[in-house]
Amino acid sequence: xxxxxxxxxxxxxLEEDALFSLEDLCRTCALPAEELLQMVDEGIIEPLxxxxxxxxxxxxxxSVVRVRTVIHxxxxxxxNLAGAALAVELLDEIKVLRKALPLG
Length: 104
What we know:
The chain is mainly α and 104 residues long. The protein has helices at 22-29, 33-42, 62-77, 81-100; strands at residues 19-21, 58-60. The chain has one domain (19-100): Multidrug-efflux Transporter Regulator, Chain: A, Domain 2, CATH 1.10.1660.10.
């Protein structure tokens, strides 16, 4: 008899105009602020207004997707932060190019 393994999937639904504070992003991605600040330094995520203090920074909902992608690249493939930054940029470029392709 075969036994099957079921995995529970969890996720969040992001509104296109959702905004996250640094604290919200830490909680949502289960990362300390220091790691997120390193991602800001690498250009992986960007606050909407750098002029604000870090406690007042707001991030677009897409930042959650980018951070989680970086987490997976690091955990699953052992990619360092600079490599993950490059990979995320290339993935973004692929999305842009795919949208530019004619359908059919």
